[in-house]
UniProtKB/TrEMBL annotation:
GO terms for cellular component: plasma membrane. The keyword Signal does not apply. It is found in: Cell membrane. Belongs to the DoxX family. The keyword Transferase does not apply. The chain crosses the membrane at residues 67-86, 93-110, 122-138. InterPro entries: DoxX (IPR032808), DoxX-like_oxidoreductase (IPR051907). It comes from Mesorhizobium wenxiniae. The lineage of its organism: Bacteria, Pseudomonadati, Pseudomonadota, Alphaproteobacteria, Hyphomicrobiales. It is a multi-pass membrane protein. This is DoxX family protein.
Length: 150
């Protein structure tokens, strides 16, 4: 056991839990990535069946031409969610999803005037995706299996 691991265990209120935490560290991160990706895919599945259906809405936010941005939104949520879930091109997929979510923060907080209560869920999801922008897919990802990461 390394000195840093030993020091970490000493700082725990229940040092015996250190082994459990260490054993589940990667698995818990993988579960968070998979759940975030699956949820984003589910959310995007409504848009991918009608990829131009949000054209008017995105133009209302100032994104022109609406058909292009609507298609990009649908693909980002649906395919980006799949990529995040399996850990393929994790960082770029998470970055694209985070960008979409930050636009929804702006939409709810500023455009709709709902403030924090309207943007809270989007802020939380953007923070989760930011984590994967920085961390990548971890060793339990397609990126790790192919030996390449962004």
């Amino acid at each position: 056991m390394s000195a840093s691991t030993e020091n970490s265990r000493r700082s725990l209120f229940v040092p015996a839990l250190g082994s459990l935490y260490a054993a589940l560290h990667t698995t818990s991160e993988t579960i968070l990535r998979a759940v975030a990706g699956i949820f984003l895919t589910i959310h995007g599945s409504q848009k991918i069946t009608d990829p131009f259906g949000a054209a008017e809405m995105v133009e209302g936010l100032g994104f022109y031409p609406g058909a292009f941005w609507s298609l990009l939104l649908a693909c980002t949520e649906f395919f980006g969610g799949i990529f995040i879930a399996i850990g393929l091109l994790t960082r770029p997929a998470a970055f694209a999803g985070m960008f979409v979510l930050l636009v929804t923060v702006w939409f709810h907080w500023v455009t709709m005037g709902e403030g924090f209560s309207g943007a809270e869920k989007s802020l939380l999801w953007a923070a989760i995706l930011f984590f994967f922008v920085i961390r990548g897919g971890n060793r339990q990802s397609v990126d790790a299996r192919i030996g390449r990461a962004f």
